[in-house]
Amino acid sequence: MDRRTFVVLAGLGALVSSLEAIANARTPSPVTDPTLVAQAAGFQTVGTVSQLNSAHVIQTRIGRTSVAVIRNPSNPNGVLAFNRRCPHEGCQVDWSNNQSQFVCPCHSAEFSATGQAVRGPARSPLTHYPARIQGGQVQVQII
Ligand code: FES
Q1: Residue 30: cis peptide before it, omega within 30 degrees of 0
Q2: Please, how many CA atoms are within 13 Å of residue 114, restricted to the half-sphere of its CB?
Q3: Which of 89, 92, 102, 127 should be mutated for ligand 1, with most atoms under 8 A from CB?
Q4: Which of 44, 55, 96, 123 has its CA 20 to 30 A from that of 33?
């Protein structure tokens, strides 16, 4: 093999290696992290089942939205998620373990565990979001 042939072959080898690297970089690898999988499906992790079991509520923010997650009273294995914004004038409702309902601190409106207004002045229900338990994590989908 003469020097020129060697240089051409070496250059082709380098080019093939570069093309393989580019092809591999553009091929998405499967996402296996449960948090990333949940985010891809639109669900956000807001806490753990342990946190929910000990506090009976998870109150946190997803972006600008303040959410509360409780156990579903009709299905102890399920969860319910609500926007904490009171439909009356926008204060943040709190979950009351003693009353098993949401209470608004501004004008004392009350909402059942399913988010229905049970005491005025609020007349509309809390906004409900899809929620689930997956892999020991409590997840909410803000839609
Ligand atoms: Fe909640 Fe008025 S803002 S009752």
Answers
A1: no
A2: 5
A3: 89
A4: 55
Q: What is the pLDDT of residues 87-114, one digit of tens each?
A: 999 999 999 999 999 999 999 999 999 9
Tens-digit pLDDT profile for residues 32-64: 455 455 555 689 999 999 999 999 999 999 999
> Tokens representing 48?
């753990």
Map 47-66 to HEC letters.
EEHHHHHHHCCEEEEECCEE
- Relative to beta strand 101-103, strand 94-96 is antiparallel
Question: Which segments of 46-117 does DSSP mark as H helices, in order?
Answer: 49-55
User: Are the beta carbons of 49 and 137 closer than 8 angstroms?
Assistant: yes
Could you tell me the two tokens for 83? 């926007």
Which one-letter amino acid corresponds to residue 98?
N
* 115-121: Cβ within 8 A, 24+ apart: 115/80, 115/82, 117/87, 120/88, 121/88
Classify residue 127 as exposed, middle or buried by CB count within 10 Å of its CB (0-12, 13-18, 19+). Answer: middle
Q: Model's pTM, two decimal places? A: 0.72
